[in-house]
Amino acid sequence: MRPSSSPSEALLRGLSGTPDVDAELGDHALLRALLDAEAALARAGAEAGPVPAPAADEIVGQCRVERYDPAALGAAAEAAGNPVVPLVRELTAAVAEPARPWVHYGATSQDILDTALSLVVVRAAGPLGRHVADAADAAARLARTHRDTLMVARTLGQQAAPTTFGLKAAGWLVGLVDAQARLTRAVGAMPAQLGGAVGTLAAYASAGPAVVERYAAHLGLAASPLPWHTRRQPLLDLASALGGLLAATGKVALDVGLLAQTEVGEVAEGGDGRGGSSAMPHKRNPVDSVLVTAAARRGPGLVGTLYTAAGQEHERATGGWHAEWEPLLDLVRLAGGAAARTARMLTDLDVRPQRMRANLDATGGLLLAEAVAARLAPALGRVAAHDLVRRAAAEPDFRAALLADGELRAHLSAADVDAALDPAGWLGSAGHLVDRALDLHRESS
Question: 309 and which of 11, 320, 368, 409 could share a cystine (Cβ 3.0–4.6 Å)?
Fold first, then answer.
């Protein structure tokens, strides 16, 4: 374990995490989880038979965080390759002599650390989930308020056709709802780990399965049917869900950052005193968008590390297991920070419908070329209609070029052309899709 107060953490970690999630991921939180695992192990051993009840009570009584120094345990961890070994040594010294043989009885270091990491994730998922819910609620409000607010849809970086800001926000909303559901499933399936040295539960004899069940129950974790020392699917499912959440928040952040560009100006991040520049007094930078985008771009590397580490040899890994710890905690921390900033970004978002309409009208109706061609197609055929409209689109005044074309005027009146050039008439099922997204949000809340 690293010391919890390095200069880089003091200066930089606040830019990627968020306090309530970070509080469940720090050294004291991990130490508490390690001790909770040792206490649950003693209780389970006593209830299932192998461990004397007085010894279990003594062990539980000494599993108090304030008795142990995370920095000292971290320094001592290097000699054994993990922090459980020095912790067990100190816990054994802390209990009365008759209880010492029963400390950590039947377990191996990986059992305790894997279980502690499961606990840490489950505990951090509480505030993390609340931030995701807040972000989804904010996206839903935007979708509802701007259900019919016209704007330009952009494909391949170019203006494409009309859409609504409500539909864009609905896309953000569904991404967040889906990510939350995947994360909830992955967190709910996080198991306790107990297998002993090589996964046989040998120390417990026939009581092994009962100890595992009681151990998991005391911790509120899933009971794995077999030890998962080198079967890392629970962590892979979690990593994938966290990576998906970072991708969902990153999508929102990227869109907001692009829409907030000076030349576009369709939205701006809110919040007093945020977004300033050290050099340019006029700047109002989209800070939350920037930081969420940064987190989203770090996520795939961390997910990749966990997947790479998952190929582990035989019954216990030589390095793969050790490679998981920090990337896993970093993923949870980044996801927490990204979710919290996305919630704030969407809650305070300054939406500018007039600017959206101005950008929609900037090309003089060219965005409705598809709509004009669709009206002509029954008479001329799809290809001929497409070519006629394409020729008109190459002229300086699109509408005038359409009306000057005799072939078009043989089939469409000026009123027909103007109707085709009305962006509100070329939205298809946009409103219905927004409503579906809002229904999905209500069902998931």
Answer: 320
